[in-house]
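Feature request, filed as a ticket because there's no other form

It would be nice if the structure record came with a short human-readable summary line next to the tokens. Right now we just get the raw output. Example of a typical job, pasted below so the devs can see what we mean:
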Amino acid sequence: MHPRDLFPDWPRPPYEGFTTDDLFRLPGLPAHTQLLDGSFVFAACQSFFHSGTTDLLVGGLRGAAPADLRVLRQMVMLVDARNAPEPDVAVVRRMAACRRDQMSVRARDVLLAVEVVSPESEARDRDTKPHKYAGAGIPYFWRVEMAGVDDRPTVHVFELGKEDRTYHSVAIHHDRLKLTTPFDIDIDLTEIENL
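Raw output as currently delivered:
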């Protein structure tokens, strides 16, 4: 058997790259496929750290979010025609995510985007995606990494600069994530050990 026979016949990108229409139209794309700069990005298997940290943040944010906001896990975000990333967690305006059959949200309706860094997504989560989110005007971004002696989540908190449309670091949280923006949040990050 030839090595090329082990892989599916992936769609070949057009000269200009894929668009968000292609993301929703092409059959057989793997779950959680993202579109970045006109190229498809396929998700790798998740580690316990990634899955557990995402669950911890989703639960904590849902318990704290005001009624006019909704917390979503791995929902496609439409930035522009060639970019549709899928943040691990997003906080959006409730009215923007209200249909049961909805498959995406618009970046302009997102208040907070969160990326939990994995080895295979490190460059995207640290550079590419925050750049896209800032350019789209998303006010808050969190980057979560495994750090410390106990490999617990460390949350790097960023706020969008209105003048330069780039993210500026405002805090780093290790054992407890306690913030007043974008709303009152208090999440015990050590709880990952109990998941």
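Something like this underneath would help us a lot:
The chain has three helices and twelve strands.
Residues 59 and 175 are 16 Å apart (CA to CA).
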